[in-house]
Design goal:
Number of strands: 9
CATH superfamily: Ribonuclease Z/Hydroxyacylglutathione hydrolase-like
Radius of gyration: 14 Å
Helix content: 10-25%
Shape: globular
Low-confidence stretches: none
Length: 147
């Protein structure tokens, strides 16, 4: 199952949940804002989120990470080139807002790293480097769903 949630603080963006239909465990991708709204969606759908995945380090994709990580007690993953963005408000552009963002507890993964659910290890995403919009850009590919 793929769920999309539109979130807004300074600008509107989308967060996504990619979850296994059977176990209802999954990943939260790019939680840019509105942690409360995302937690409500997770609860409403009866989901267990095992990790937060980031496609790149701009503020509109990482804005709710610290709050969600504190509540859910789960790891955060991003591409290995993401540290500068995650830890520096100038690079993640949040220094231009009222709320500079610094992420401290992030695991940086290499190109082609595979992230699997603990509840169902065959449910996996592969991280693929895809710089362009930012130098740290990645996508997550699922062979099972071809998406």
């Amino acid at each position: 199952m793929i769920l999309q949630a539109t979130v807004t603080k300074y600008i509107t963006t989308n967060a996504y949940i990619y979850a296994d239909n059977e176990t209802k465990h999954g990943f939260l991708i790019d939680p840019g804002a509105q942690a409360g709204k995302l937690l409500e969606l997770i609860h409403e759908k009866g989901l267990t989120i095992e990790a937060i995945l980031l496609t790149h380090g701009h503020f509109d994709h990482i804005g709710a990470v610290n709050e969600l990580q504190a509540v859910l007690q789960i790891p955060v993953y991003m591409g290995e080139k993401g540290m500068l963005y995650a830890e520096n408000p100038v690079w993640n552009l949040s220094s231009q807002t009222e709320d500079p963002i610094v992420l401290k507890d992030v695991t940086y993964l290499a190109d082609h790293a595979v992230i699997a659910l603990k509840e169902k290890p065959s449910f996996q995403l592969e991280l693929l480097d895809l710089p362009g919009h930012t130098a740290d850009g990645v996508i997550y590919y699922t062979k099972e769903d071809g998406a």
